[in-house]
Amino acid sequence: MTENEKKPGKNFKLLIGIIIALVLIVAGAVTWIVIQSTKINEMTEMFDLEKEELTDEFSQLAVQYEGYELNVNNDSIIELFEAEKMKVQRLREELRTVKSTNTSRINELKKELATVRGVLKTYIAQVDSLNKKNSELQEENQVVTRKFQEARSNANKLSKEKEQLSERVTMASQLDATNIIIKSVNKKGKDEKKVSKVTQLNISFIITKNITAPTGEKSIYVRIAKPDDDVLVKSEGNVFQYENKNIAYSIRKDIEYSGEEQSVTVYWKVEEFLQAGSYRVDIFADGNLIGKKSFSME
């Protein structure tokens, strides 16, 4: 075989080799492209998932701010919570619009998330501290209130006891008129039951001994009430004070009281028409009713 006959066979083999090489290169390139495409898809899915998780974290953080804000009574801290909550919402909205492949901004948003989460922890610590102090203050206030109520109760009790004691002292120091005797007499000074013949009423009584009563000059007031309860008076100006009211008296007698038993007699000269029936005599001293007695005339 000549040299020229051998050349076509060599060229064919060379061509086949080149074709095979090209096929291998193309196959390798396609494989590389497929692999890279798969990696890109996987990375895209990972970025999307990471973005979604980050969005959820922002949403949860916003809910946390909302929840803690409802449990705060301090206006200043509420304003801080509100400002941070608005910041979280703004960052969450920005995260929704940023592309998943924008890893630089997403990483920045991650840092922002960590910052606002740290701020929330700080605020929560402050709120817990305030709540603890408020709880302590409330407990102290309850203790103080209870002590105040106990003190007021004791004061009221002491005041009541003092008032009762004062009443007992007042009652103990009050004068007492006993052995009250009323005589109706005629013009001859003799006892008379016929009302038409009575010219004078003689009223005698005893002021009992009382060492607790104030001594000195005392005014004794005697009221004589007719059957119709009208009081016998000589003048409309004859009044004295009793239970914060001015009431009429029939007879007034001033005595010097020494604390010892003392007899007193007063007289009423009959100058008016008297009807038959039951009469009543009331005796007063120091603004107190110290004795009374009824009598009848026919």
Strand content: 15-25%
Distance between the termini: 192 Å
List the helices and strands in order: HHHEEEEEEEEE
**How are the strands of the largest sheet arranged?**
6-3-8-9
Q: Tell me the number of strands.
A: 9
Instruction: Give me the secondary-structure category.
Output: alpha+beta
* Main sheet record: 4 strands, antiparallel
Q: Any idea what the shape is?
A: rod-shaped
List keywords for this structure.
single chain, 298 residues, alpha+beta, Immunoglobulin-like, 2 domains, four-stranded antiparallel sheet, three-stranded antiparallel sheet, 3 helices
Summed up:
The protein is an alpha+beta fold and 298 residues long.
Would you mind describing this structure in some detail?
- By secondary structure, the protein is of the alpha+beta class.
- The chain folds into 2 domains: 126 residues, no CATH class; 121 residues, Immunoglobulin-like, CATH 2.60.40.
- The chain is 54% helix and 23% strand.
- The chain has 3 helices and 9 strands, in the order H-H-H-E-E-E-E-E-E-E-E-E.
- The chain has a 4-stranded antiparallel sheet with strand order 6-3-8-9, with no helix packed on it. Strands 1-2-7 form a 3-stranded antiparallel sheet, with no helix packed on it. A two-stranded antiparallel sheet has the order 4-5.
- Helix 1 runs antiparallel to helix 2 and helix 1 packs parallel to helix 3.
- It starts with a helix and ends with a strand.
- The mean pLDDT is 77.
